[in-house]
């Protein structure tokens, strides 16, 4: 394992600890490879009955991919790409697929910041996952804020959120808390931060084969204490506005609503990449009809187009490099985004037999 990913086996449970606190556990290519190596080794290991993934810090589970790395290698590469960049997204999406279909209980302690790539390594599939949040959890798919789109399987899990919640989360990129994550189906259980140490002790002391049941029993008393969900309270508003047929129609609907919730969403969308909001809207529409592998293959195609286009490089420049928070989006206005501009992001990059994720089933 690298210096930022630690793995061990104890009491028939495999433990993965993300330990890059200064970068909020942002994923590097080496970290993606370490995660995949551990999970592949334990998948068929009769001595491992369950897996727990956690952070060394309560500030963040994982804030996403290392966007400074994206910027550096993207700018250095030919036509916005490089071998390292290609490898990162191919291997990260393959890791997301591995986690989704993992055959053993997969417990993610989603304490602190959980965004982007952090969602990809936490979500898992319904047959294996157990996702725990706390009052410190700050969850988002904020990719449109940097000129990207909700990837790492976002086209799958956001498109399957209740009603129009997926469109709301994907198009605004706004952060939600534990109660919202539970209501959206993006988390399973709530545990107060003060009780996380006791949960950790229980996990360490429980044999892997009994872990899922033991954790479920431990968290049961806390489920009424997660607080109220803003998304639940505003569900009718979200469905009404974000069910409109296009990003322009959504923003027009929001603009006609003087309520604080609608105006906050509209204000956020006004700062996002117009092109990538339109691409995201189409991505989620298509993702609803695809399986996990199909969604990840679609996202892999889009990410190649995105770096060639350069929108993400401009977004990262404004947010992280120059920190002027004034991205020069192309096009600058939503009215200038055409259907042809959106469609070209979905154009095949490789023939099916050569797609880098062709082996996903």
TrEMBL record:
Keywords: Hydrolase
One Gene Ontology MF term: 3-hydroxyisobutyryl-CoA hydrolase activity
Record-annotated membrane-spanning stretches: none
SUPFAM superfamilies assigned: ClpP/crotonase
GO BP: any one term: L-valine catabolic process
Domain of life: Bacteria
Residue ranges of domain Enoyl-CoA hydratase/isomerase in the record: 14-346
PANTHER family, per database record: 3-HYDROXYISOBUTYRYL-COA HYDROLASE (PTHR43176:SF6), 3-HYDROXYISOBUTYRYL-COA HYDROLASE-RELATED (PTHR43176)
Protein's UniProt name: Enoyl-CoA hydratase/carnithine racemase
Species this protein is from: Rugamonas rubra
